[in-house]
Structures are given as C-alpha cells and as structure tokens.
Amino acid sequence: MKAYYQGQIDYFCAIYAIINSTRIAAGSTHKFTYNQSVKIFQHLIQFLYDNDKFLDVLYHGTSMDLMNNLLQETKKYLLETYDIHLHFKRIISYKKSSVSQLGNYISEYLKRPHTSCIIRMNNKEIGDHWTVVQNRKLTFLKLFDSYFYEQIDLSKSTLRPYKSDGLNHIVRKNVILIKVLD
C-alpha cells in the first residue's frame, strides 16, 4: 500500500495549475517563494468559499466558467499584491485543428518569454484534470503537474470528448495561454 499524496484524491488541480503556470510565466521577473504560493492558494480557496463554489470543486472539479473566474481573481490578486500583470486567453475554442497542430501551436507559444499554458485533459489514469504544459519534445507535451503526471503523448491523444478508450482527451476549448508582464 502507498500513501496518498497531495492532489491525488482532491479536485483542486485547477488552482495548482494556476499557481504553477503563474510561477513558470513569471520566470526571473518574480520568483514566487513557497509562502507566496501558499498565500495564492489560500486566497483562491477563500474565493471559492466566499462565492459558494468550494463544495462544487471539492465534489466535481472546476468547470471552464469557474476556471475563468479563478484566473480573473488571480489576475486581480497578483496586480494588487505584486504589481504583476497576468494575461490569459483561451485558444481554439471553436477552431478546427488536429492534436498535432494544437501541440505545435502550444510549443511555439511557449518559446516566447514569460509564458505558460494550462490545459484540461481526461484519461483513464487520472480522470478530468487541469495541468500545465512546460514544453514539447517530439510527440510529447512535457507537463509541470500537481499530480506528478509527466507528459502527454500527442500520438495517443484526441480532441474528441472523453471515452474510456485509453487515449488522452485534450479539451480543445479548455486550452489557456498565460502571459505575465511586470
């Protein structure tokens, strides 16, 4: 028997993804300390409580609409607390593209300074999950993941809705590009 680790049996991956993507995008402009990251986490959890969304996330995870609200709140918090400007936008919400094209687009975006990318995926192993893409190597998206999920093989991925078929299902409308400006 193995011990559970943080993030393994909760549905707060969206908050971890926001914090991790912000840390990556801030880069050398602002290196977030452990305590600063904890404060962001606590602030976002309080935001969920204050807006009667904590139990929704606890039991069901984070919808795209709620992810937008969390990102807006993070944007406000970072500006007020650190004078850091967080920008985010969804891509390919309705545009038709292949998994490979999506991987290429994300890869090119991540070559820019102070950027990161949050994606929502679903598979048999981890279920419905928000994570952060670090870069692309060959057919793999390398992740910076709260669940310690290392990578997604794009050759074994689809943009179709989730089915129990052994593939990684990347939710097209839940790909979010992050940029931090100081």
Question: Which helices and strands, and how do they pair?
Answer:
Blueprint: H1 13-26, H2 34-50, H3 54-60, H4 64-82, E1 85-91, H5 99-110, E2 115-123, E3 127-137, E4 140-143, E5 151-153, E6 157-158, E7 168-181
Parallel strand pairs: 6-7
Antiparallel strand pairs: 1-7, 2-3, 2-7, 3-4, 4-5
Jot down its keywords.
182 residues, alpha+beta, Cathepsin B, Chain A, 7-stranded mixed beta sheet, 7 strands, 38% helix, 27% strand, globular
Write a concise synopsis of the structure shown:
The protein has 182 residues and is an alpha+beta fold. The protein is built from five helices and seven strands.
Could you explain the architecture of this structure?
With about 180 residues, the protein is an alpha+beta fold. Strand 3 (about 125-135) and strand 4 form a beta hairpin. The termini are far apart. The model has no long low-confidence stretch (mean pLDDT about 90). The chain has one domain: Cysteine proteinases (Cathepsin B, Chain A, Alpha-Beta Complex). It has helices at about 15-25, 35-50, 55-60, 65-80, 100-110; strands at about 85-90, 115-125, 125-135, 140-145, 150-155, 155-160, 170-180. It is about 40% helix and about 25% strand.
Straight-line distance between termini: 46 Å
Which spans have pLDDT < 50 for at least 5 consecutive residues?
none
User: What name goes with the CATH superfamily?
Assistant: Cysteine proteinases
* Helix-strand makeup class: alpha+beta
Order of helices and strands: HHHHEHEEEEEE
Fraction of residues in β-strands: 25-35%
- Mind telling me the C-alpha Rg? 16 Å
What is the residue-mean pLDDT, rounded to a whole number? 91
CATH class: Alpha Beta
Structural domain tally: 1
Major sheet size, sense and barrel closure: 7 strands, mixed
Number of strands: 7
Residues in helix, %: 25-40%
**Count of DSSP H/I helices:** 5
- CATH architecture annotation name: Alpha-Beta Complex
The name CATH uses for the topology is: Cathepsin B, Chain A
